[in-house]
Amino acid sequence: MQFRVDGSEDHNCYRSLMLKEEIARIRELVASTGATIQPLLHPHGAIAKRNAYAHIWLGIRTRFGAAWRESAIAHEVETFINWTSENPNADDEEFTGSTTRLPVQTPSLDAPRTRAEPGLFD
User: Fold this and answer.
1) Residue 106: inside a domain, yes or no?
2) Inter-residue contact 34 to 24 (CB < 8 Å)
3) Upper half-sphere CA count for residue 35 (Cβ side, 13 Å)
4) Of 61, 76, 96, 101, which sees the most CB atoms within 10 A?
5) What pTM, to 2 d.p., does this model score?
6) Cβ-contact 47, 30 below 8 angstroms
7) From CA 86, how far away is CA 96, in angstroms rounded?
């Protein structure tokens, strides 16, 4: 099953990369949510001072994967951030919303490289 950008099911249309505007909107939402929840975070035994922004970004990475920009649906990430705003001290695993991971489109390792695509040590 594949999903449209808006989250509705579609068997022929999906996109695995977020638009720059969607990523910018998510960054702004993290910034505003982080500022809101910073004074609400409870102390943590291993951390001297909690960082609300890192708390949100770590939650996004945990729930949607390290490659969330390529594999997540923007409105689901926004839903998670809004949930974090309402539940700042809750564990990320308590989030019951959708966390769809679309396939990340990566180039094949077997495909020959062109001169315009140098390798790591070229």
Assistant:
1) no
2) no
3) 5
4) 76
5) 0.71
6) no
7) 13
Of the candidates 99, 82, 91, the residue with the CA atom closest to the CA atom of residue 7: 99
Structural domain includes residue 113: no
Please provide the size of the chain in residues.
Answer: 122
- Residue 24 identity: A
Tell me the residue range of the domain where 71 lies.
Answer: 20-94
d(CA 8, CA 48): 43
- Encode pLDDT of 30-85 as tens digits: 999 999 999 999 988 887 788 999 999 999 999 988 888 888 889 999 999 999 99
Query: Hey, what amino acid is at 37?
Result: I
What is the C-alpha separation between 28 and 14, in angstroms, rounded? 25
**Phi, psi of 79, rounded to the nearest 5 degrees:** -60, -40
Asked whether residue 104 is assigned to any structural domain, the reply reads no
> Considering its fold, how many domains does the chain have in total?
1
